Amino acid sequence: MSLLKPGHRGCAGCGDAFAGKFVLDALGEDVVIVSPTGCLEVFTTPYPESAWGVPWIHSLFENAAAVASGVEAAMNALGKKNNTKIVIIGGDGATFDIGLQAISGAFERGHDITYICVDNEAYMNTGIQRSGATPLYASTTTSPHGKVSIGNPQHKKNMPAIIAAHGSPYVATASIGYAPDMIKKVKKAAQVKGPTYVHVHAPCCTGWKFDSSKTIEVGRLAVETAMWPLYEMENGEVTNVRKIKNRKPVEEYLKVQGRFKHLFTMDGKNEGIKKVQAIADWNAKHFGLE
Amino acid sequence: MRKNMVVVEGSYAVAHAVKVCRPNVISAYPITPQTHIVEDLAQFVADGEMNCEYINVESEFSAISALIGASATGARTYSSTTSQGLALMHEALFNASGMRLPIVMTVVNRALSAPINIWNDQQDSISQRDTGWIQLYAEDVQESADMTPQIYKLAEDEDVLLPAMSCMDGFILSHVYEPVILLEQSLTDEFLPAYDPEFVLDTKNPMSFGAFADPSTYTEFRYKQEKAMGVALEKIEKIANEFKDIYGRYYGGLIDGYVLDDAEIVIMAMGSIIGTVKDTIDELRTEGESVGLLKVRSFRPFPTEAIRKALKNAKVVITLDKNISIGKNEGALCTEVKACLHNTDNRVPVIGFMLGHGGRDIPINIIKKIINKAKLVEKGIFIESEFADLREDLA
Amino acid sequence: MKLIIKTVTKPGSTRANKTGAWRSFMPVFDHKLCSKCGICGIYCPEGVVNKLENGYFEPDYEYCKGCGVCANECPKKAIVMVLEGK
Ligand SMILES: Cc1ncc(C[n+]2csc(CCOP(=O)(O)OP(=O)(O)O)c2C)c(N)n1
Ligand code: SF4
Ligand code: SF4
Ligand code: SF4
Ligand SMILES: [Mg+2]
Predict the structure, then answer these.
(1) N or C: lower Cβ tally within 10 Å for chain C?
(2) What is the mean pLDDT of chain B?
(3) Where does ligand 1 bind, in terms of residues with CB under 6 Å?
């Protein structure tokens, strides 16, 4: 049975729950998990219950990397570190935005920690507000589409590149739609000494507005359209990419999600979709996905 | 000078006291006037004199956050900060206390910006009053050093388990060279037991820390913190006496009096200002004035009962505050002393004076001026609270 | 009764909360169509699709929220979602 126990309060079909489960499947019992505030943290630990079958700590929204630094330092000081992995599982808001400074500090100091970003592309826990990870034109509650708005005006920040620039020995992207690949990468990240990073794309049925049964399918579509390229970087260099056989047009990914629905109905719709297609094309070319 | 005394900087005396407490993890970020403490500690580590992890974080927010993680893992932890750094920690201070992690921090008291100012007042720690941290205030360098093992013992007590601030006035104590007795390692090992909490982050007993509490349970977390402060209130005196038995020094427990018993005018204060007040009292006593001092060592927990008892015979109470609650025109000590007397029969007037902001000097003549103003009460002229030393050309 | 508030909580204790009650659709597994590939076991967000001794898979209905991911992912269409209470 999974070390992330059932009974938690995640929405039916929750992508974060998949991510949490796969991380623990990859790591086993010899791990300490640090979670910043966010959906996964809240729905797994309604006092006096906890879904975690491993030691777990939540402190605040923006400090998980620093808390993990302290856990690692204490384990070293007390002679308890041995092979225990210290792993942060944080949302995109905690990672891209409010917690970035603490992450930068921890990666610079070179703690032996693994940071897993569970990216559902918005602040879900507080009701689907945009974050630095929200993709271009997605409609969220703080970047809604409207008469004069086509949704989120900014591009998604390139977080793996930011981490790689810190000199991290291992950075990878993964998707809950490809569980074996994700589990392999999480295992590898934990095994590599030093601060490592796995960025997991985790569709959220509630926030992205699709049926709960489609969580995994939507995750796969992001990869098949090159909206979410899967790759590994070692010491700053891309060393492995997952090739796409017959790359699908981005419409196939966009049309199944309510957050992009306006792109298909508003005036000048083709312009919007074209711009999104350009992102996928860039990914395909840049990472050599085809 | 006593035989085993050495002349060192206040910061060094405190850093040395931290060293003999054997913390496992130190995490701090430099800010004047705390810097010398963390530099001295870094040197101890670099010289192999301390066996601990020293994390050079990128902010005070991460300093306290790292200690939250370390303390939950079972480590004895230490940080030091002041002013802007302490304010930056604010959110995490509540968190450390709510999780009942006995982190110890020296606050080297300093004024807050704007205008930016690096000198001493106590606005920084006073502003963290409600975060659930124990706050003790030291009068001089020796007390600052001696407070360190005492506050560890208090914070880590299994019936307390609260984080704690040991407060010392910036520059006035941190940068002064004074003869002190450096704390002996052997005595400290005898005085301070190892930290051994019941629950830690442990793969063999995988508990969860920091759950989400809804209205059905949240209140009781706060109630338990308050109860723990109540226990601390009793233990401060006990620990001060244990310290006396082992090291031979004593500074009072929650409060301390100086020619208090027969005093009609009682001055209440915290921190290094105590020294000036004592000198003033000495002068005034030779002139036949009935003035005494009530030093407040513990601001959190607040020693309500002890203060009520100590003020039983006072005719006028003067509070000195190096802080202000802007909009109340009062310092925190003044407000709290008034509140603690309200439900008693003791209707002694409490007159508040705010002074020493941003490091402004507090000479004896200012204390005398204050006492004379307070005495006007006998003539029916009552001052509620005011700034003691305003520059007329700027005000 | 003495109120015991600890700041820590016990591992896996959410199991006290039977989320099966949330379900409006129920996954029904047809073993005749099943190839025992195990995909449903991987792609259940609750981690409650278990392998039986005979190699087939069944969900723990005490916790299954009825999200339908297992049915959507089953390559053999061996899982159907049926309205609860029918
Ligand atoms: C300092 C602070 N600001 C804001 C919040 C409110 N808040 C809690 S969780 C959250 C969003 C979490 O977003 P993300 O990290 O993407 O995780 P998700 O819930 O989407 O999985 C916000 C804004 C907070 N708890 N603390
Ligand atoms: S809002 Fe999204 S991430 Fe949050 S619990 Fe629901 S499905 Fe999961
Ligand atoms: S996914 Fe379908 S075919 Fe595969 S084991 Fe499950 S029920 Fe059987
Ligand atoms: S319907 Fe959802 S919760 Fe129920 S068994 Fe299938 S995947 Fe698991
Ligand atoms: Mg998110």
Answers:
(1) N
(2) 97
(3) A 16, 37-40, 61-62, 91-94, 120, 123-126, 131
